[in-house]
Predict the 3D structure of the following.
Amino acid sequence: MRYTLGKEEKLKSKKAIEQLFAEGNRLNSFPIQLIYLKKKHQSEFPIKVGFTVPKRSVKLAVHRNRIKRVMREVYRKNKHLFSNNLKEHYIFMFIYSAKEELKYEDLEFSIKKISTKFLNKIIKNE
């Protein structure tokens, strides 16, 4: 497995994003919330992913962009935790909910915790 986050792995379709927010399931691990939905897509990688930081919680665009950049990096390094043992295709959206920027280690811990919650829920539903 390559530790990259290429163009084909990014969630960009407006229709898919709207469907994700309307029908998706949510998991929380402060400060990150994961919305996921089982959806067939063209990518060879089983997950398409997006990242967002609400303007309401982080006012300055500079800080929002940095948080998104760090979240993408944490996901890129740990995406094998999500994609191993997946047979279906999914779309993900990670939402940052804290008011201030947290350290890299805290975000990494939170994403790892969400990955275990996600896999447990998927295994339980199958």
About this structure: Residues 61-83 form the longest helix (23 residues). The helical segments are 14-23, 61-83, 104-125. Strands lie at 25-29, 32-38, 47-52, 90-96.
